[in-house]
Amino acid sequence: MEELMAYVKPVMAVIPVSGSGAAIAATAVTAVGYNRVCFLLSVGAMGTGAGISCQVTESASSGGTYATAATTAALTAITTTGKNKIYCIDVHVNSDKPYLKLYGTCGTAASLHSAIALLYQGSGKLHDPKSSTIFGQYLRKY
Question: What is the CATH number of the domain that holds 69?
Fold first, then answer.
């Protein structure tokens, strides 16, 4: 069996946080050299009336405006009935705008959430999972 993490590069997209009444505090994901990115949004406990909505935006540079949506796919109105689940948005990387960021908002009640981006279908070079900065620890049994 192949090692999955040799073909997928995980990157932090939203640091775990309890957010409310504000935009999602997302980090830019540099997808240069990759064809696709799968964003996994993890939602935990949510206060009464909480909600989260988000979509993937793209930019030509890491410090860009991220005003353009990378896809029409969006996670909308995740409410307390959707807590304790993982949500996924998988997008193609536009080589002219390879910097991606989750853009969205949290409702007025607190919502625990975080996200990672899995970059894949790269330029053919395998990724060394031990070099990833997202892992607190990487273990593999042969």
Answer: 2.60.120.660
